[in-house]
Design goal:
The complex is a heterotrimer of chains A (about 190), B (about 375) and C (about 300). Chain A is an alpha/beta fold. Chain A is built from six helices and nine strands, in the order ααβαβαβαβββαβββ. In chain B, a hairpin with a 4-residue loop joins strand 2 (about 230-245) and strand 3 (about 250-265).
Chain lengths: ~190, ~375, ~300
Amino acid sequence: MITDALEGGFTEAPVQSARAFREILEAMARPGTIRRVQGATPPAPLSIAAGVALLVLADPTTRLHLAGEADCPAVRDWVAFHIGAPLAVAEDADFAVGTWEALQPSLRFRIGQPDYPDRSATLIVECDRLVNHGACLTGPGIETATWLNLPETAAFRANRALFPLGFDTLFTAGDRIAGLPRSTRVEAI
Amino acid sequence: MYVAVKGGERAIDNAHEWLAEERRGNPAVPELTIPQIREQMKLAVNRVMAEGSLYDPDLAALAIKQARGDLIEAVFLIRAYRTTLPRLASSRPVDTGAMAVDRRISATFKDLPGGQVLGPTFDYTHRLLDFTLMAEGATPDQGSPSPLKGQGRCEDETRAPHVTGFLNQDGLIEEATPSDTMPPDLTREPMELPASRALRLQALTRGDEGFVLSMAYSTQRGYGRTHAFVGELRIGTVAVEVDIPELGFAVEVGEVELTECETVNQFKGSRTEPPQFTRGYGLVFGQSERKAIAMSLVDRALRWQELGEDFTGAPAQDEEFVLMHCDNIQATGFLEHIKLPHYVDFQAELELVRKLRAEAGAMQEAAE
Amino acid sequence: MTEHLAAGAYNFAYLDEQTKRMIRRAILKGIAVPGYQVPFASREMPMPYGWGTGGVQVTAACLVPEDRLKVIDQGADDTTNAVSIRRFFQRTAGVAVTEATGQATVIQTRHRIPESALKQGQILVYQVPIPEPLRFLEPRETETRKMHELEEYGLMHVKLYEDIARHGQIATSYAYPVRVEGRYVMDPSPIPKFDNPKLSGNPAIQLFGAGREQRIYALPPWTQAVSLDFDDHPFETSKAPHDCDLCGAKDSYLDEVITDDQGGRMFVCSDTDYCAGRRARGMKGRLWAPEPEGAA
């Protein structure tokens, strides 16, 4: 258990986290585009992409919520060793990771304050797969329209209605990652 | 014929070379050593440590040497270095009551337990140039260290009680309640207003000495007057302790020299508080008493809201004004950046002014 | 000072990993709320505040070893501060550099947007002195934060309208404010208003860093950024009414160069790469002559 926890982090953090961040930046700046990341092998049930996103973005200054099956000893130990983020309940979290079902209800996550909309949660939603069809996405970062297989649309429409407040989302599946900031308009097709 | 200006790289290299030469000055004159600066320019070293927020006399001395004596530039070097250092631990709060005192004076009581100690001060020197210091090789005997050094350090009594503590016994001064709240860190979190007192004090202690001095002076002249008395000014060394969780107790990791000033200020009372004295506080690295006194006056002036006083519009009462402008590294960077090229924005202004003038001229002609 | 930045002495791209994570989080929040200024704990950099520390921190947080970096100041690659910043990243990140806009993956800029259209995959990082578009109307951060919260931008319109009343037109020629996606009013940094149309619907990611003021903000690709104006006084760009004297370009922003003390002047592209590229393709301006042999 302990030896497992020691593995699966970045071996060359400055460069690996730089490359991974660029992919995450592209994903968030161009909602719906699916990017690939590498460098981490977190314990199950975390995907490579979720592990990479946590290594790149979370640290002892951010509160992390592990939802559902992600809240297991192997993940806790791995997070403690590689990231050091204090674990928190959903309502206090800066980052939350788990399947969409495990993260429900999504309304409990921080949406920021009217004067500080940046103080909001980023959800890392574990998916079985990511493909460019499904809900139609429009808004900043999208030239005309794009499509992504979202787990649902109602929650993201409700989140968009809070703009400039709202949570932001990264979807992960294997080594793939896609972004859905609060600014994106979502329509079911 | 015009050839576009090239050679920025070479110009920079040449400038750096020339700068190094200028820093050294006449090679026939012996080069300053770091220990010389550290020991003989100690107050400059103190200021660089205080405004650089890094207690390291050797590095401060190095910075002063590298900066050719430009103290703000030296503070900048220290800050840029400090920001790259890992945070290994947070110390426990230092206990200035246990300070080994080199200087301790009170302007409010003629005598007090622990005594008044004048210490190494310029206060009663006559400001006459001492030409013996100029005579080469005629350095006064180094001799043994002053027998007076540390005379305030009582062998039997390890604590020098604070003057404000005496007033507190009689309920004459506001209670300063200790708190275990983790203070914010100005260097790790963006400034958020309104600021807590802890954050204000942090900004003031690393703020520019000249700026804090002028703000304090303005309160004395009536711009946010606080009727301050120096309850106590003390200078000396305190132990810095760090909790070691594995050991379950704190260990001393070193000591630092500090200047602490507590002012006692008149206060007429408010709806909730009876008339009593209030406090202003200053704490600065090294022997930096001008800064510590000034800081305590500005601290007190900034507390108007908490104490139910009126905001008179005085700059020293204005938290945002003071905190956003007291940092000399921010100030000097932005001030000096206007010497960078602004061709593009200036060209835009030039076009605008030409256009406005042309239109104004045309309108005048039409009117005539 | 930068001479001391020997390889290995500092982390990749200078900043420590924790600082980069903090900046990266701020960038992503900026992307998520276009035009909103995200506070970040700006670090003290080994260059002065006001000289691009915000841009440098954003660039440092974005760079990967495979990047090709271009740095411009006033549109030019060879101005001293651009040279200094480019060298900083060559030393601390070991990245390749270029002067060609089309070849660059990351471009750090002060006061200009390159003339050549940017494309997907590029990041344009702006150095920002005063990120708050309302600052010169209301100096207090506590007030301007409220104004953004409540979308109270009336003060800005009043100021622009006063200009019209007085001068017959809006007398703001650079750092001309834009409204982003109908929500936040944003300062585009002191670019000439000539460049404002390029902010909107740009395929590149645009990131803005203000070090001293501790703010990061962003325009994701294809984001709408509308220059503030009035129906009866629509926004207009402006430039010197000349062609470039070196390359003959009619459509580029021009620097005015004084050539003698008799009132002689010439106009040249502020974007040196654009101008050189045109000349390399054989385009000539009024005063162009090839560089003499052996000239530096």
